[in-house]
Design a protein that fits this description.
Elements lengths: L4 H49 L5 H11 L3 E6 L2 E6 L7 E6 L5 H13 L5 E6 L8 E7 L1 H53 L15 H55 L5 H23 L14 E4 H13 L7 E6 L5 E4 L1 H22 L3 E9 L3 E8 L6 H5 L16 H12 L3 E8 L2 E9 L6
Parallel strand pairs: 3-4, 7-9
Antiparallel strand pairs: 1-2, 1-5, 4-5, 6-8, 9-10, 10-12, 11-12
Length: 461
Amino acid sequence: MLNTLSGRFLILTTVFVMLAEVLIFVPSIARFREDYLRDHLERAQIASLALLADDMLEVDLERELLQNAEVFNVVLRRDEVRQLMLSSPIPKPVAETYDLRASGPLTLIGDALTQLFVADNRIIRVIGAPVRDAGLLIEITMETKPLRTAMVDYGLRILVLSAVISIFTAILLFIAVRVFLVTPIKGVVGNMKRYAAAPEDARSIIRPHAVLRELREAEEALSSLQTELTHALKQKERLAQLGGAVARVSHDLRNILTSAQLFTDRIETSEDPLVRRMAPKLVNSITRAVSLCESTLAFGRAEEPAPTLTMVRLISVAQDVLDSESITYPEGAVTLACDIPPDLTLRADPEQLFRVILNLVRNSGQAIAATGQPGTVTVSAREGDKAWTITVADTGPGLPPKAREHLFKAFQGGTRKGGSGLGLVIAAELIRGHGGTLDLEHSDSTGTRFRITLPKDDGTI
């Protein structure tokens, strides 16, 4: 609680109210002492009136009058004559004399504090003016113990009352701060957390509604900042999508152009003079195109367009992939095999499915070729009750641990030097667009096998 704004405000309020009460307490206790002494002067004057009415008082009656007035002696000066009106034995010498007629505020405060902190029972003389002009002055002699007891009792009551007032005031201020300040601030903080979780969602932008002017200005500034940031994020997202789209297209286009580049190598061996003359230009153009595609692979990811689903004869798509890849490797280095029923048809986007199988076959072929040992890449498929399954398996060295760990992460799952790691990422996303999955089924020193699963249902209820 001490670390919260409202908690610290509560403590500070209590301390400040108590400090104010202490500042009030000092003059209050001085005022109480003055009233106490004047009250005893007045009671002593009333007691002396009995003597004025009857010059001779019995000793018992005089003692009773002095006890009621809580004094030892009463001296009244009338017409310049100082007269001892009532008297009794004084147990101690007079220690101090206080004249209330000429005492200022500071003197009264100093005398009160001295009286409060001196515990000894002393005899003091108090001088004051009689009430109703009944003489020039009145003087009494009294003990300080009853006075100090009364002052301590009064002080304790004042302190208790001050504590109650300060606590009650602090609680009210605590509630007020919670309602008018802390709660709105928490609302702003909560909005900031919600906005941080989804900054692209315009619904999370704060709507200023605070009553306090300063807090409303903060909300308006935050709203303006969030609005600008959301627009900037959307703009950056569009740029990222554009860059990602270019990267994806470039990746697959590079594969296609590489195959075309291999075909041009064959064309260069033609005996036709025209072909031999045009082939180098074609090779240069394709080489530049491949280089351009590779340079764009640094762009970020983006969502692929939704697939156009039709019933596709799978063997024709797979055979196109194998035909385009068959000339990539030296004879006997990589064997490409197809084990797909001729009549197997499935629901897919033929162009996207071609790209997926091409990526998987090319990765497998490159892995085998890198070993320098002959190997086989096999594309197979089967039809189940609920899904079609396509498998691309090879007899290569298997994926390294780091590649398996970051298999479907862009720019992290590459298995060869210079690879971007986009191939499997693109393939997996294209299959997800079909409602299916692309999984690594097996990978070790005996080879690697990927499984594509495409559901038969069309996703409708």
